[in-house]
């Protein structure tokens, strides 16, 4: 069980790294699914930065450092992203159907990063 708990946060970092690679090289994969319109080159650059560069950097840092506090900080960040999605559903009237892909990603990453804290 301890070996699994050691690998769950690493799996989260790998998943975040994968999100970063897709966001960096194929930003439209995110924007089309989220119904975002990139009408200028600067908009594409911003999506590459936020979905690509930040996720690549953070995922790689988590893999290289392998520190429980880093995993905990990332898990909390993804958890609060999850809370923001539910808040947005209430305030902005986004639908559960449209929000479900993001909810799934946020919940899975939060769980993976916080698994050591939750079960350790």
Quaternary: single chain
- Domain tally: 1
Radius of gyration: 15 Å
Task: Give helix and strand order, one letter per element, not per position.
Answer: HHHHH
The biggest beta sheet, please?
none
In total, how many beta strands? 0
Percent range for helical residues? Answer: over 70%
Mean pLDDT: 94
Number of helices in the DSSP assignment: 5
Instruction: Using the alpha-carbon principal axes, give the shape.
Output: globular
Account of the protein in words:
This protein has 120 residues and is an all-alpha fold. It has one domain. It has five helices and no strands. Helix 1 (2-25) runs antiparallel to helix 3 (41-65). It is globular.
Write the layout of secondary structure elements.
Layout: H1 2-25, H2 28-33, H3 41-65, H4 68-91, H5 96-119
Kindly list the characteristics that best describe this protein.
120 residues, mainly alpha
Summarize it.
The chain is built from five helices and no strands.
């Amino acid at each position: 069980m301890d070996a699994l708990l050691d690998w769950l946060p690493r799996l989260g970092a790998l998943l975040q790294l994968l999100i970063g690679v897709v966001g960096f090289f194929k930003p439209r994969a995110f924007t089309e699914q989220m119904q975002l319109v990139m009408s200028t080159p600067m908009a594409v650059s911003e999506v590459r930065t936020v979905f690509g560069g930040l996720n690549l950097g953070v995922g790689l840092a988590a893999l290289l450092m392998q520190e429980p506090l880093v995993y905990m900080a990332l898990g909390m960040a993804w958890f609060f992203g999850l809370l923001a999605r539910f808040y947005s559903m209430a305030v902005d009237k986004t639908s559960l159907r449209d929000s479900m892909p993001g909810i799934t990603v946020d919940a899975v990453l939060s769980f993976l990063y916080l698994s050591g804290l939750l079960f350790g």
